[in-house]
């Protein structure tokens, strides 16, 4: 009888990139359902446009680079990038927004650096930031959540909003984060009574809190399936929670918003569980990922409160992507049985 | 050392040793003022003028400058011509002068100019030096215009807007609106990141073209028949 020699790692089920990417896509479903429920079919337009553009630009770049197209398209990574960007974009934005954003993400931020595994920056966030600084007007028009006022555009209106020259203004409303940031005249409890989007919700604005909750559920599922460890999300959420508690100012008119507002509004949960957990562009070791998450959490709060853009997750993630090699340098784990590792910054003798 | 021929100098300045795409010198103006074609031409022409004049002057003085004062003296010469260019622009293209602002006096710190003065003009006679300055300047100008055109087109959807700042009233209607009146404007192209992206893509394009030429040259290389050496492996190419 011939004995089979198998070397480590002895995993029962090998995890391929495609498996992981499919899990991530599956875990985004609750968040997407919540987004559609509160912000309407515009989300699905974004998903479709981003998905198609991602596959097309990935195939184009692979062809130009002389790589096997089918092999790389089947790893689903382009679709994950597309989905992450699509849920971050405002629903009912003109069709060229998702197309330009996804093409930038895949071509500039991913394939030009060498494709999956070589990109120093999170492609979806690069696409988002390029769109945000290029088209600030289109990128900050969010429709009011379904439970607040006018109701949502129907399918026909959605088509003319996305593909026509129809203006989206009639449906839009400031997001909870913007409302709180621009307030410096009335106390928080009064603000929560006066602003419909906050009054209809319970902690962080109607719609937004449910979307974040749904992404939290999806993220916890990924954590349970061991797609990533707890370090980065916990670091980010803890830092954000601590800072927003310190600056809550007991809900006065100068308050920067309650900790719950910061945790459950904007892109917090999407960022914490789906974006900073990207294994390629974040730090490598678990301790490094904890620091990476803490850095993102601090930057998110700082940029949200003292910066000039409505949300901050994308900027915070990109800034920490820059810092990831430095974090790696200082958090090199010691391999069992070996001496402490030498850092790249240590002087040669 | 014999000076290179005019052909070599031209090839070097415009392509093989292009200051912006190969030497990567003078990146500060390259990135800062290429938001539109008119700005690119304005600064490119000023740099070209300073480059020709300083190369000529340094070359004329090359036998009278000791090695110890060569660099300070070159910088003084460049600074003089930069001031001339600045005053001329102030006199004749005042609006452009205001738009370009600090980047005109900063021509003095452009490494291309000091680089050519030290690497070429201080070792070669005046004729080749002036030609070298001119060709390097033209190479730089062309890259500035290319980046300016791409950024202006992507960022505003126009080409040659405001050309009357340089060429007078006759150029007022040179402006081409290529992408339609309601083009939303891809702002990042005009912002600083756009300059890095476009410059990077141009460098990549140049490298790709060079690689393609090399590949073709390899294919066309004549196979020498009747070699005396016996090959035991591989194919003769």
Automatic annotation (TrEMBL), chain A:
Keywords: Cell inner membrane, Cell membrane, Electron transport, Flavoprotein, FMN, Membrane, Phosphoprotein, Translocase, Transmembrane, Transmembrane helix, Transport
Cellular localization per UniProt: Cell inner membrane
Membrane topology qualifier: Multi-pass membrane protein
Record field: transmembrane: 20-50, 71-89, 203-223, 230-248, 260-277, 289-306, 312-332
Cofactor(s), names only, from the UniProt record: FMN
EC number: 7.-.-.-
Chief location of this protein within or outside the cell: membrane
Record-linked InterPro entries: NqrB/RnfD, RnfD_bac
First and last residue of the signal peptide: none
One family name in Pfam for this protein: NQR2_RnfD_RnfE
Chain positions with FMN phosphoryl threonine modification: 175
UniProt superkingdom: Bacteria
Record's subunit section: The complex is composed of six subunits: RnfA, RnfB, RnfC, RnfD, RnfE and RnfG.
Similarity remark: Belongs to the NqrB/RnfD family.
Stated role: Part of a membrane-bound complex that couples electron transfer with translocation of ions across the membrane.
Annotated protein name in UniProt: Ion-translocating oxidoreductase complex subunit D
Gene: rnfD
UniProtKB/TrEMBL annotation, chain B:
Pfam family, one: Rnf-Nqr
Keywords for the protein's UniProt record, in alphabetical order: Cell inner membrane, Cell membrane, Electron transport, Membrane, Translocase, Transmembrane, Transmembrane helix, Transport
Superkingdom, taxonomy of origin: Bacteria
Primary localization: membrane
Compartment(s) where it occurs, according to its Swiss-Prot or TrEMBL record: Cell inner membrane; Endomembrane system
Enzyme class: translocase
Record's bilayer topology term: Multi-pass membrane protein
TM ranges: 20-53, 73-92, 98-117, 129-150, 183-205
Enzyme Commission code(s) on record: 7.-.-.-
Transport is among the record's keywords: yes
InterPro entries linked: NqrDE/RnfAE, RnfE
PANTHER family attached to this UniProt entry: ELECTRON TRANSPORT COMPLEX PROTEIN RNFE, ION-TRANSLOCATING OXIDOREDUCTASE COMPLEX SUBUNIT E
Purpose of the protein: Part of a membrane-bound complex that couples electron transfer with translocation of ions across the membrane.
Quaternary structure, from the entry: The complex is composed of six subunits: RnfA, RnfB, RnfC, RnfD, RnfE and RnfG.
Protein family: Belongs to the NqrDE/RnfAE family.
Xref: HAMAP family: RsxE_RnfE
The name this protein goes by in its record: Ion-translocating oxidoreductase complex subunit E
Species in which this protein is naturally found: Biformimicrobium ophioploci
Taxonomic lineage of the native organism: Bacteria, Pseudomonadati, Pseudomonadota, Gammaproteobacteria, Cellvibrionales
Protein encoded by which gene: rnfE
